[in-house]
Amino acid sequence: MKENFIDKELANVFLYKSNKIFDDFTLQEEEVSGIVKVEFNDFIELWLGERETIEIKGFEINDRNKTLIEEYVGRDKFVPHQISFYKEIIQKIKEQIK
Fold first, then answer.
1. CA-to-CA distance for 92 and 86, rounded, in angstroms?
2. Greatest alpha-carbon span in the chain
């Protein structure tokens, strides 16, 4: 994160349980460039510092072309919020999927 950087962006996180596959989603390309999924426990371990990378799978759209994504990424590939933000999101998800 940049020194003296103050993040005033409002971020909304929505939890939506679905059996849909990626091909079922239509993206608003001006707002969303792709969708990926990750195992929830892997995501937790990443933000608790128990692992350095996690596997993501999904797709992105560039100039109306869909490119499949299957790679390992670290925290640097996520929106640069404080770790406390991600920990709060993890806790809220856990409360909903008990």
1. 10
2. 42
Q: Tokens standing for 5?
A: 């950087």
Residue 60's identity, in one-letter code, is E
Q: Are 36 and 25 in contact (CB under 8 A)?
A: no
- From residue 61, alpha-carbon distances to 40, 43, 78, 98 in Å are 24, 23, 18, 34
* Helix axes of 40-47 and 83-96: crossing angle, nearest 10 degrees: 150
The 3-state DSSP class for residue 64 equals: coil
Q: Which amino acid is at 28?
A: Q
The answer to whether 7 touches 81, Cβ cutoff 8 Å, is yes
The structure's pTM equals 0.80
With contact defined as beta carbons under 8 Å apart, do 45 and 32 qualify?
A: no
- pLDDT, tens digit, 9 for 90 and up, residues 52-95: 999 999 999 888 889 999 999 999 998 888 899 999 999 999 99
